Structures are given as C-alpha cells and as structure tokens.
Amino acid sequence: MFLPILCVFSLILSSHAAVQDFCVGDLAAPEGPAGYSCKKPANVTVDDFVFSGLGTAGNTSNLIKAAVTPAFASQFPGLNGLGLSIARLDLAVGGVVPMHTHPGGSEVLLVTQGSICAGFISSANTVYYKTLKKGDIMIFPQGLLHFQLNGGGIPSIAFVSFSSPQPGLQILDYALFGNDLPTELVVGTTFLDKAQVKKLKAVLGGTN
Ligand SMILES: *[C@@H]1O[C@H](CO)[C@@H](O)[C@H](O)[C@H]1NC(C)=O
Ligand SMILES: *[C@@H]1O[C@H](CO)[C@@H](O)[C@H](O)[C@H]1NC(C)=O
C-alpha cells in the first residue's frame, strides 16, 4: 500500500534533481557560446532576477536620435540560460534605429508611447512594414534586417523582447561605413558612388 506512494515520491524527487531551476550568469567568468557559467546557487539573491533600469528614458542626443537600453544577460545575469531578454527603445521625434539584425534571436516589440513605423525584409527580399501605434505589437524574425523610425510628432517608447539572453545587434550602416573597409571595396560591393561612400564614412566614423 505504501509502495506506490513511495514510487511517486521518488519520481518527483528524481525529476526535480534532473532539472536545474536557473543558471544566474557569473559575469566574472568568461562568456561562451552557450552563455555564462552559473553563479553558485548559495550566492544567488532576488536581485539577480530583478532589473530596474527600464523606467528611465535613454539618451537620444545622438546621430540617430535613438537609444536602446538593454536588459540582456550581461546587464541582467538572471536571464542567463533562459532563452529570453528585454530592452527599452526610446526614439526622439525623427529618431531611427537604422536597418539592423539580431543574429541570435527573434524580437517582439510593444509600443507604449507615440507611434513607430517599423518593418523587416525577408530573405526573399519581401518588405513588411507598418506604422504602429500605442498598444500595437510587431514581430521581427531572427536574423532578418529590420528598422524602427519615429515619424510622429512626439517621442516614442517601445519595449522589445528577444528569444535569446544575448540577441546581439549589427547595424547595417555602421557595418558598411563605420569601419576601415577600404572605400574602393565599399563602392565595389554596394554600387554607390565614391563621393557618397566618403560622405557616409565621415558621418559614421569610418576610415580608408
Ligand atoms: C559566494 O559567497 C561566499 C560567501 O557566502 C563568498 O565568500 C564568495 O566570494 C561568493 N562568491 C562569489 C563568486 O560571489
Ligand atoms: C546625452 O548625450 C549627450 C551626447 O553624448 C551628452 O552631451 C549629454 O550630456 C547626455 N545627456 C544626459 C542627460 O546624460
């Protein structure tokens, strides 16, 4: 009579033992492809699972008039290993997150203030874009080029969540014009005029 109950108990205990509840990142250790190694459970506190930075507007006094405040694993180690993260996006009037990709994860964006024209380009080069208003949500599939632009009259705010604790970010304009890739190669690979490439390199901090 006790045996079935014991069996159930031992099943519950063994299944618990097999699953690790969390792996709060040890930011002092190096980060590998699978994320950070785990902090000792005895050293984990509630603050590892709470991030308080997203209530404050980012500084949009920059070329793109935009600020992304990330709560990725490097800022928010409790996310390590859990396959998700979040960030705040502030766009001043006329602000833009230029064409970019997140190699590591898909994105879902929720507009909480103002309006944002957002879109992505599929690998078949089909464009999907729309002007989103407060309360609208849009999805940007992993790895695809996409953008967000505030064409409205007031600053806009959005919160973006990713299917990765470290989604990564590569902005196309900076990849093309913000480094030392020689002008002739940029001209040769983009079909742009040399003068235009030189101008964009000057604006975006590129050389050569
Ligand atoms: C973990 O906590 C112990 C004491 O509770 C401390 O001595 C040790 O330095 C801590 N380790 C880390 C990595 O914070
Ligand atoms: C915002 O950034 C600009 C340019 O880097 C800087 O001059 C300004 O002091 C910053 N403002 C705040 C409130 O940090």
TrEMBL record:
Residues 1-17 form the signal peptide. Its main location: secreted. One of its GO terms (molecular function) is manganese ion binding. It is found in: Secreted, Extracellular space, Apoplast. GO terms for cellular component: apoplast. InterPro entries: Cupin_1 (IPR006045), Germin (IPR001929), Germin_Mn-BS (IPR019780), RmlC-like_jellyroll (IPR014710), RmlC_Cupin_sf (IPR011051). Gene3D superfamilies: Jelly Rolls (2.60.120.10). PROSITE patterns: GERMIN (PS00725). It holds the Pfam family Cupin_1. SMART domains: Cupin_1. Disulfide bonds join C23-C38. Residues 52-198 form the Cupin type-1 domain. Mn(2+) binds at H100, H102, E107, H146. Keywords: Apoplast, Disulfide bond, Glycoprotein, Manganese, Metal-binding, Secreted, Signal. Belongs to the germin family. This is Germin-like protein.
